[in-house]
């Protein structure tokens, strides 16, 4: 591959100091709020699972550099308060709080929706809400150069490619779904498997739906290719969400039917 044809990040940008400060504080607060939420649920349910989910969300930040490279997202490095560096990319402290919030608090909230019998309509509404929140707050920091998206990104509005929020939300739902499916097989020390499951679920969800854009964005092609790839990614997001919601709701219906036909077994479960 000719390296000159690969889209290059805008490495000449300089981090906006005020926005870096305020975003670090803001996501520090939301991350702390996620921990408070997890502690409250853990005490209420006498379970360590909520704390493991929140901690798993914090650990999932280690995948940010990989997702940024394939999705052509760049955190401004000059003047950055760096949390870690991997794959040649520096990732700021801002992301620790944001991951704890999105892949900790929101994943825990979604997991509880799965467990508590939220109807399909409620799950779809939650998915849309999380997307809209990301759509609403990203354009301003992008405008001030805290991070940026480069290459032939489809569906740009205010320099923000609108395919990212559904992909990220599929990642959060995939993490919750993965935990929901395997949790009943875990006990004792094996519950610690929840920590990497959040990370794995996020990466699994992203790869499941974003691969058409990951490939085409890193090719020597333009919008005539990345826009159709973007539509394919959005279709995959919808199908993935629909499948997860259907599996969750159908399995709950089966559990209810088993309990009605065998009340004693249902009580034991």
Helical segment tally?
10
What would you call the structural class?
A: mainly alpha
Average pLDDT for all residues:
91
According to DSSP, the number of beta strands is 6
H/E element sequence: HHHEEEHHHEEEHHHH
Structural domain count: 1
Major β-sheet annotation: 2 strands, antiparallel
Task: Summarize the structure in words.
It is built from 10 helices and 6 strands. With about 270 residues, the protein is mainly α. The chain has one domain (about 10-255). The strands form 3 sheets. It has a two-stranded antiparallel sheet with strand order 1-4. Strands 2-3 form a two-stranded antiparallel sheet. A hairpin with a 2-residue loop joins β2 and β3 (about 90). α4 packs across α7 (about 165-180). It starts with 16 loop residues before the first helix and ends with a helix.
Brief overview:
The chain is mainly α and 269 residues long. The protein is 67% helix and 7% strand.
What are the key terms here?
269 residues; mainly alpha; two-stranded antiparallel sheet; 6 strands; globular; disordered C terminus
Q: SSE layout and pairings?
A:
Blueprint: H1 17-45, H2 49-59, H3 64-71, E1 73-75, E2 82-86, E3 89-92, H4 94-115, H5 120-137, H6 139-143, E4 147-149, E5 156-157, E6 160-161, H7 164-182, H8 194-217, H9 223-261, H10 263-268
Antiparallel strand pairs: 1-4, 2-3, 5-6
């Amino acid at each position: 591959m000719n390296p000159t044809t690969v889209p290059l990040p805008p490495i000449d940008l300089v981090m906006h100091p005020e926005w870096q400060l305020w975003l670090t504080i803001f996501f520090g607060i939301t991350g702390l709020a996620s921990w408070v939420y997890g502690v409250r649920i853990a005490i209420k349910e006498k379970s360590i699972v909520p704390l493991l989910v929140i901690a798993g969300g914090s650990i999932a930040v280690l995948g940010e550099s990989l997702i940024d490279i394939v999705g052509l997202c760049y955190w401004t490095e000059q003047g950055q308060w760096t949390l870690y560096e991997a794959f040649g990319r520096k990732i700021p402290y801002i992301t620790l709080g944001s991951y704890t919030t999105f892949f900790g608090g929101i994943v825990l909230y979604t997991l509880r929706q799965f467990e508590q019998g939220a109807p399909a309509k409620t799950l779809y509404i939650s998915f849309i809400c999380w997307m809209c929140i990301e759509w609403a707050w990203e354009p301003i920091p992008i405008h001030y150069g805290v991070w940026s998206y480069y290459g032939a990104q489809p569906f740009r509005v205010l320099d923000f490619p609108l395919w990212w929020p559904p992909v990220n939300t599929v990642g959060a739902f995939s993490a919750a779904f993965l935990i929901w499916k395997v949790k009943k097989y875990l006990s004792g020390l094996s519950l610690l498997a929840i920590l990497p499951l959040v990370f794995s679920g996020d990466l699994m969800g992203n790869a499941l739906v974003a691969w058409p854009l990951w490939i085409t964005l890193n090719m020597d092609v333009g919008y005539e290719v990345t826009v159709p790839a973007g539509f394919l990614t959005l279709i995959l997001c919808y199908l993935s969400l629909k499948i997860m919601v259907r599996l969750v709701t159908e399995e709950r219906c089966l559990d209810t039917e088993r309990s009605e036909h065998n009340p004693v077994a249902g009580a034991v479960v």
